[in-house]
């Protein structure tokens, strides 16, 4: 470094070091200062050969992961009674409220809409959200004469009897366990496990189903969980090269069983990405995709290339500011690291400031 007037000599050399920054490794220079009280006025050893400008921009930390276009989460329809399978739908078939999902001993299991799974027999005197779901469905299918609430009354039973009569069933006024399948909406049959004529015991799977809206499933490593923020926008790249916007709809943890006794199970973060523009993905029932996540975003911040940072011996980082005639080191506070850029702030740092890039 140059000597100060009055004979004070600072001959400490700049020593190259490596610093680790969020988003990757960044090369920097370790700057030794004789007088740390004059941090922003420390003269550089020589004018930088390579320079760049401080820019103001929106900085995004993005990461692209493999995804699978399909119909989202798969659920299983399980028989609640023992008997013989007498009717099943075809794979790919779509079912709506009031449709028969499958039949055991010629008794149908009917699709109704609701978030709470069927878990008990419903009859006069029952109370709860499952009763409310049932009554909401009865009303939607055109049955009347009861109050839609969470109480199963004699009026509810009369509406159920009318419904059973329309289905060709015994008019008991009781909804037995296994009579209905509650799902969030209309469904698509993904695969069928129980074939017609096959005997089934209770709690054996009959078929698996999904929603009818195409979605993308991504399985992230546990270390990448920061990417999986519900309701966050993502970009989906399709097999034809086009991209469509998506939004994280659901995040859950799944355990992948070990492939062999000498390996451990894996923990994955499963992300379901909803696609609003269904026409754009209608050509595929299944396809490999690339999903770009934005882990964090900083709007209208000052940035420089990560390579412009210098590490200060007393701690922290700085940049070498130059006007083409002289230069000095200015301490800066770093923020987001992304795409080879780093967010900085510091005294005198503004858009257009020229800074050096160490060799």
Overview of the structural elements:
- With 359 residues, the protein is mainly beta.
- It has helices spanning 129-140, 154-167, and strands spanning 15-21, 24-31, 42-43, 51-53, 55-70, 75-79, 83-87, 94-95, 100-104, 107-113, 180-183, 187-192, 199-200, 204-211, 215-221, 233-237, 243-256, 266-275, 287-305, 310-312, 317-322, 327-338, 341-345, 354-356.
- The strands form four sheets. A six-stranded antiparallel β-barrel has the order 5-15-18-17-16-19.
- Strand 20 (310-312) and strand 21 form a beta hairpin.
- The two termini are 16 Å apart.
Could you name the key traits of this structure?
359 residues, mainly beta, five-stranded mixed sheet, six-stranded antiparallel β-barrel
